[in-house]
Design brief:
By secondary structure, the chain is α+β, with helices and mostly antiparallel strands. The protein is 29% helix and 20% strand. A hairpin with a 7-residue loop joins strand 1 and strand 2.
Length: 79
């Protein structure tokens, strides 16, 4: 399962960040970025990729605002 969110950026309106749940212990964010770069426009390629084991969920949906808040805190980004 995967989810992409938008993060604020000073130069651009926003940048994509991806969250991926995978079983493989040897996953590399660089490989995932290269895969996306070969298939997507450059503005759609996630600048940040994080792996998750458990999703913040409501009854039926991923709570993207929690993913965004956690990553913004990790990267020390301001709104």
């Amino acid at each position: 399962m995967a989810q992409v969110i938008g993060l604020p950026d000073e130069r651009l309106a926003g940048i994509p960040a991806g969250f991926v749940e995978i079983d493989c212990a040897t996953a590399d964010p660089g490989e995932l970025k290269a895969y996306a770069r070969a298939r997507l426009a450059s503005l759609k390629v996630p600048r940040h990729i994080r792996f998750v084991k458990e999703w913040p969920m409501s009854a039926s949906r991923i709570q993207t605002f929690k993913l965004r808040a956690a990553l913004m805190e990790e990267l020390a980004l301001k709104v």
